[in-house]
Amino acid sequence: MADLYEPDYGTAYYRSRDPVKNIKVKIRLERVTSTSIVPQVLLENDKNSGAGDSDLTKKTSNVSTIKDIEEYTFKWQEKVFSQREVEFYSHKENCADVLGSKYHDEVTKLLDGGRPTDRLFSYVSHDKFTSEKNNIQYMTTSPDEKPTLLAERAANVRRRKMAVTSARDNDAAIVPRINIVDVNPSEETIKQRHVISTPVQSMYIMADFSPKDRDGTEEDEFVLCTVKVDSNGVISVKPDFNKGNKPYRIETTSIGRDVFEYTVQHSSKQMNRLEQDRERKMYKELYNRHSEFLSSCVGQEFEMTPPGVFRVIVYGEIISAQDFEYNDLYIHYFIELPKNWRVDNFQELSGVTQTCRTKVEGRSNVCYFSFPFNFELFYKKDLITKEKYPDELPGWPQLFFEVLSLDSWQRYRPEGYGYMTIPISPGVHSEQINCWRPLGNSRTSEMRRFFIGGSPQVDDLTYLYKPSMNEGSTMSKFGFKTESTGSIKVKLNCIHQSRAFLDSTSSKKKVGSLLERLGGNLAQSNIFNVLDAFQRARHRMMSARENLPQNLKTLTLDAKDNEMKTSEL
Question: I need a surface site. Which of 55, 105, 194, 428 has the fewest CB within 10 A?
Answer without folding.
Answer: 194
